[in-house]
Amino acid sequence: MPNMSSYAKRGLVLNKHQSVSNGSLSAMHSIFNASLPLNIVEQLPQRNYGELAVFLKNNGYTSHLIAPEIEPISVNQWVARHNIVSEKKSNVSKDVIDKIEDIIRVPGKKFVCAYLYNTHFNYYYPEEDEMYKPVADEGINIFAVEPKTNNPDMIKLKNRYNNSLVHLDRILGEFFDRLDARGILLDTLVVFIGDHGESFGEGGLVGHFTGYHKKQYEVPAFSFGIGLPPETIDIATTHADFFPLITERSGLTFLVNNKKPELSGYPLLQLDDSVMGRLIVRREDKVSIFDLTGNTLKWIITADENGEIRGKVADLYRGSDFKALGEQIAADRVFIKERIGMN
């Protein structure tokens, strides 16, 4: 995405950013609230006035959410919702961008969250942006594709996804260029972030919301605009870090539970929303999976990204007393309890 890369260099780039979840609802909740939702199904109905909403209200902003009607999403109740109807799915992200321009033409301070959709499966784009070939048909059932990275049908599916990125990069680049030409970027802070990643056969998985492989969590994250000097951060970060970090770099204060968040890098605490109550402690070379149903923390497995026990991970399982494995599990349990406030 050369256009996005060019604009990203103007501001803050998070090189090793990951989502807190492989699903949209938990991911969006975390972005808005700088926290980890342990059970998004239970937490969504709660009309909590989240951290970001408080920040915006205190600073005189009105809030807007733009979401395609073909993919209605539920986020925290503070946001004023706007639905977009798109007759052609390939145009849905362009429709959202048009709505942004309508909103920003109105005077006043405003926060606009735009949910772009065309990179969601089945990955939509117009014919003019088809750079990668061969491609899978738009109507393909992606979950029927054999989940191997070298499978010809998987390659076609990934090409389709790459073309959707080409399309998004073009229309966003044109949008930012228009704002730049009108001088709007001089008093605007632009945030670009993915809600979750996508698998194309890695670890035997496809799409998202299907497993804990890192590919379902890796996302682009950058921000540029007023008051944000160019900077690249190579520490591992998640959505819970995102707005606190941006506001701090802009000279503002964003508190979470009345505290200033701090970057800590690995390990990261994440959710595998394909299974209710599934928690992930992700380190650079391994993951530990826990179950939190019934408010009881149960260890399931420590493995590599592909769910396999080999290499350095296998060393933890060697020895009749499993001492090394026990120490790893104990450390991961402490890490989870500290992060979620569990005794």
Structural class: alpha/beta
Q: State the CATH architecture of the largest domain.
A: 3-Layer(aba) Sandwich
Basic shape: globular
Radius of gyration: 21 Å
- Helical content class: 25-40%
Q: What is the CATH level 1 assignment of the largest domain?
A: Alpha Beta
Question: Which range does the strand content fall in?
Answer: 15-25%
Determine the N-to-C terminus distance: 45 Å
Q: What's the number of extended β-strand segments?
A: 15
Average of the residue pLDDT scores? 88
Count of structural domains: 2
Largest sheet descriptor? 4 strands, mixed
Helix count equals 9
Strand order of the largest sheet: 6-9-1-10
- Could you tell me the CATH topology label of the largest domain: Alkaline Phosphatase, subunit A
The low-confidence runs, each spanning 5 or more residues with pLDDT under 50, are 43-49
Order of helices and strands: HEEHHHEEHEHEEEEEEHEEEEHH
